[in-house]
Amino acid sequence: MRSRIALGAVAGLAVIGLALSGCSSSGSTGSSTSGKVDGKGKTLDVMIAANSLYPTEQQQWFKDVSAQFQKETGATVKFETFASANDELTKIQTSVLSGQGPDIYDLGTTFTPTAYSTGAFVKLTDDDWKKVGGRDRFVPATLGISGPDEKNEVGIPFLSRPFVMAYNKDLLKAAGIDKPADTWDGLADQAKKLTSGDVHGMAVAYADSFDPWKFVWAMAMQQGNTILDLKSKKATIDDDAVKKAYETYFGWLTDDKVVDPAAIGWKNANAVAAFADGKAAFLPMVSSSSQVSLDKSSVAGKYGYAVMPTIPPGETKLPSDGKAAATIISGDNMVVAKYSKNQDLAFALVKMLTSTDNQVKYTKTFGDLPTNADAAKQIESGNELIAPILDAGTKAYGTPFSGAWGDTQLALVNVVVQSIPSLSNGSVSSSDLEAKLKTAQDTAQSSLNKAK
Fold this sequence. Notes:
Blueprint: H1 10-21, E1 43-49, H2 55-73, E2 76-82, H3 85-98, E3 104-108, H4 112-118, H5 126-131, E4 156-160, E5 164-168, H6 169-174, H7 184-193, E6 200-202, H8 212-222, E7 228-229, E8 234-235, H9 240-254, H10 268-276, E9 280-286, H11 290-294, E10 303-306, E11 327-328, E12 331-336, H12 343-353, H13 356-366, E13 369-370, H14 373-380, H15 386-394, E14 396-397, H16 405-417, H17 420-424, H18 430-450
Parallel strand pairs: 1-2, 1-3, 6-9, 11-14
Antiparallel strand pairs: 3-12, 4-12, 4-13, 5-9, 5-10, 7-8
């Protein structure tokens, strides 16, 4: 459910990372006589986001992974977690500057371009791919944001997380609605019909650190605006398409009144909980990881997933220059630090974690989809709920592959964060929104000017 954000100093990191790469060692690890990587007495450090939905399960997963890896290689695995983008970037800054830190970082796909731009992570060779089982072990679509092109990749796909919309079948049926709308305007109309008493048409997490920008990005893309135009090196946040996206997103709460007023302070987990309690008809911008929670809730067997609308606000069909973006290319990539003295050991762990058995187990525990092709086939088999999620994955678009995207993503979120007081008072004025968009535009353009 996350897609992490890079914060500030990206250009500086890139320069330092490039300097560091010039003196980095190969980081090879000795092999035993059996040909396996010998990690006896070594510890591998892995940085990964804390799982706020399933914290207990994650702690057990850490123990299980370390035990399995110690059995296979003799090495132990130490996991570090971060709870926010600030935590993540601080750790990367410290590591790049000092040339030491975690051996492996588990990055959200939208952060991969920023990580790539630092030059501080291993650019994967054919031999490196062989160490993790080969590129052909992965679902092809999950490789779409591993690097700017196939010859310049740093990210090894670990999890796939296409975003979709959950809906309450019983509530829709009672309102005479056959299926979720494929336009944002149509969805708002349906949500109005489904709002009654303490049951609302939508559950939306306005205070979440990761969700808001994805709505704006999708609606803008559908209007032909990519947020960053890499060819012309221009940011396009100060465009009418982006303003319209924010007005639609805020309007669900302030004008349409199809969202619980408490949602102003909700994180994603709160939105999932409201839907699970039957208090919302639609839960947009959610991934397959929600299935683990929903199947244990009062809506078990009563909900389905659908591709989110791909026709932008104010339109009945996709504009000629629009892109039918249903979701970002979303998930996690694992990258190996150039400064690591245990690179072979790191690749051995990634190979283990992306094996068929481990990927199937992870999906059954946390809900995120496998990147391992064989595991994906197993998970898909007999699971009707997964079909719309896989369909959304085929309609996914990558965010701009630029070191500037991290700052841009944060700027998009900040527009929402800074609008919370106005939302609490009932509305966000056009002039206030325009001012915030100008600030976001300046931030994105400045970062883009500095990016590699």
